[in-house]
Amino acid sequence: MPALKARLVGVEKRDLRRDVSSVGSLFAFDEVAVSSEIEGRVDKVFVDLGDHVAAGQPLVQVSPVELGLARDQQQASLQATRAKLGLVEGADDVPDPKLAAEAKRAAADLDDAESKYRRAKSLFDDGLIPKGTLDEAEAKYHSARAAYDMSLQSVENLRAELRQRKATYALAEKKLADAVIRAPFPGQVKERSVVTGQYLRVQTPVMVIVRVDPLRVRLKVPEKVAGWISIGQAVHVEVEAFPGKTFTGTVARMSPSVDAQTRTLEVEALLKNADGQLKPGFFAKATIASNQVDSALMVPEAAVRYVFGVYKIFTVKENKLHEQEVKLGERSGDDVEILDGLTAKDTVAIAPEGQELREGSPVEPVKQP
What does the DSSP assignment read for 299-364? Predict the structure, then answer.
């Protein structure tokens, strides 16, 4: 029987970093339904489906006419209260109630009544005026004191009213500002649910905004490999929309517990998506480069044949070919792991292109091209 030419390769024993394969889906990093915080008619819609928006960019303009009038009304009420307190331009409050205009006027009346009462008492003591005149001066003095106390209380009431007017005016200002509905973060418009002329109620949704850079990849990994994965490890993702293209991200988060029903651990990775190629909802096949390193037997994948549902390899013993069934493990580049069927001392044969190997045939080694 003529010898068959083949390339002979020894089984290599080397360290192999284990990969964890999983499937999952892509999710937006953030997604929010933006709603109206006020009631009113829509004047303008600035963006539409698919548009890119920046944080704070206007999305919808609600008619501001009524809100502006309400703000002006509250501003007028605030100015009236400030005037009652005698506040000058730029002053926010009265530091001391006694300094308010009303209290100063009441204090002046009290000083005048007190002065007249003391003078009347002195004249009465000297017998120059009757008792009735003294009683009248004393009554006016007590009345002025009561009026002064009431003025201080009135000033305190006005100060409380001023704080209320400020809050009401600030609320009116906020509602006017809320007439422009803005994007909460940079992203894209996923849904538009409002048109010009539509009347909005409070909490009426107007847009759905999604942030797609980065994207979240949520994966389920088996419980037995949960210890192989840690935060920061590389994740390689493939999607059906771009066959043959690999997207790389990193593990960002891991669930603190294993799902008792599926015996899997949820892992979330982040993928950069500046060009927007990847879309939330894509089905993803992912490979995580774990921190688990094992000693493995490796042979070139070209030496392996798949025959009738089993993998087989030709080994060389006593210069002859012998077919051996093997069990495969992980692939690493052009090599494949052998889990069962070979030892580190074995030599395997690889047939040149277009040639087949046969059981029991002599073999003639050829050099690797």
Answer: EEGGGEEEETTEEEEEEEETTEEEEEEEEEEEEETTEEEEEES--TT-EEEEPPTT----TT-BEE
